[in-house]
Amino acid sequence: MVKKIITLDPDAGGGASTITQQVARTFFLSPERTFTRKFKEQILAIQMERYLSKEEILNLYLNQIDLGRGLYGVGAAAEYYFGKPVQELNLAEAAMLAGIPPRPSGYNPVSNFSRAKSQQRHVLKRMADPEVGFITEKQRAEAEAYQIKVVAKQSADGSAAPHFVEHVRRLLVERYGWQTVYREGLKVFTTVNIEATRIAAEAASEHILSYKGGIDKALGYHGPLPEGPLKGDTAARALEEDEAGYRRDWLRARWREVLAKGLGGKIKFADLEKTVPSPVPLSAGRTYRAWVEKVDDKEFTVTARIGRSRIKLAKSGLSWAAPYKEGRSGVSLRRPSDILKRGDLILVAVSRDKDDKPVFSLDQRPAIQASVFAMSARTGYVKALIGGQTGEFIRPIQSARQPGSSFKPIMYAAAMDADPPGRYTPATVVNDTGWVFDPSSDNFLSKSW
Questions:
Q1: Looking at residue 211, what is its pLDDT?
Q2: Are 252 and 327 contained in the same domain?
Q3: What 3 state SS string does 351-411 have?
Q4: 165 within some domain
Q5: Within this chain, do residues 353 and 440 fall inside the same structural domain, yes or no?
Q6: Using CA of residue 326, residue 328, residue 334, residue 335, what is the dihedral sign?
Q7: Total domains in the fold of the chain
Q8: 32 and 129, same structural domain?
Q9: Of 141, 311, 236, 51, which is closest to residue 303 (Cα–Cα)?
């Protein structure tokens, strides 16, 4: 369907170049605008038409054409925008895809549905033109009236599997060089599984860091964010900037809902902007930056501001946060003023109780790290790679390995070989505890045994 539409609509390719010229340019030349490049493009186009059929040239074009949102090729675009293989697209969806190439960043249905719809109408009108006659006027009208549901089901820019994508990028640069990777339009096929990556990320974050208060939280509270404390106008500006960000997030989420319901042709983004509530509702399952307004030891509460919203942290959301001390865990907070004061910037996690009322808890950036490396035992394909909680350091790949238990056989062998003979045997029981070499000092307590 898409192939036939683009063949019929010369404008779908964008600019004045023919499809053959665009294939020649994107496969073999740079995008620079010079007479020399244009001349080479013409020569290559002639050569391609001599040795390749129009069907073969069109297939090359459709598999590498830029369709916005970091998507190249109609197959990837169909999966991302509509959540289905390109073979299953209907006329309305195929026409919308065919209208994207002239300006991929502005004509795709996620960035600007109204322009994408206008391009779709242009394509359908061209198809129904009596000189072309590819579809009837009735089919054109039905396709225009069809409510397209834009799924945008997964990230097309690599953010769904950032550590995996970053590792692949590094391997490509190491093997082929920066110029080839960034300038020559490589098509890279990987083994990543987005769903497996999502599950791995949740396991690393929730079950390792958050389960029953989390390993990190059991050690205590690391303290307020280093960006604070903030006072006066500085605090007010920071809160307004945060609120503006929450407003943008709310609009994006509502707009995606509109597109997913097929209402992009009826509801305009500008009209949606007028409906943003103030303050913007806080979303459960999300962590926000907050400014401490009041600390009350008597009531054991902390009043804070998240953008324009005023929230209160009760004892249940604070009690875990005793001041951090290495080697100590499970200690409860005595009073909020031990860790917080007015003006501090903190992180607050939002959840909901059984009555669907918001519950606020003090949160923190984890000091510990968790990583996941998931590989198929049958094929050896890497399906998921989580490098850590923050940054681009990919722990399963880059971290130095500690000797750990691999050194124990050497130690045990030396013990069994030591004098007097028989002091240590394979049956000897050794206490699995730390050993204080100097009882007068904690500095000599072993921490790895």
A1: 46
A2: yes
A3: EECCCCCEEEEEECCCCCCCCEEEECCCCCCEEEEECCCCCCCCHHHHCCCCCHHHHHHHH
A4: no
A5: no
A6: positive
A7: 3
A8: yes
A9: 311
Give the integer Cα–Cα distance in Å for 369 and 214.
12
Backbone φ and ψ of 74, nearest 5°: -70, -25
Cα 295 off chain centre by: 35
Tokens 């050993």 correspond to what residue? Answer: 435
What pLDDT sits at residue 112? Answer: 84
Residue 152 lies inside a defined structural domain of this protein:
no
pLDDT in tens, 63-101: 878 888 878 888 888 888 988 888 889 999 999 999 998
Euclidean distance between the first and final Cα of the chain, in Å? 66
Give yes or no for residue 256 having a pLDDT over 80.
Answer: yes
How does pLDDT run across 264-318, given as a tens digit for each residue? 778 888 888 889 999 999 999 889 999 999 999 999 999 999 999 999 999 999 9
Question: Are 290 and 350 contacting, i.e. CB atoms less than 8 angstroms apart?
Answer: no
Of 104, 128, 145, which residue sits at a domain end?
A: 145
> Could you list the residue range(s) of the whole structural domain that residue 87 is in?
2-145
**Residue 387 corresponds to which tokens in the numbers above?**
């490098």
Residue of 283, 242, 241, 248 whose CA lies nearest to 269: 248
Task: Quote the CA–CA distance of 23 and 37 in Å, as a whole number.
Answer: 13
Tokens of 211: 């389960």
Last residue of a domain, one of 113, 145, 177: 145
Q: What is the pLDDT of residues 342-362, one digit of tens each?
A: 999 999 999 988 888 899 999
Same-domain check for residues 359 and 408: no
Beta bridge mates, 72: 66
Write the Ramachandran bin of 86: left for phi over 0, alpha for psi from -120 to 50, otherwise beta: alpha
Structure tokens at 70: 């970091």
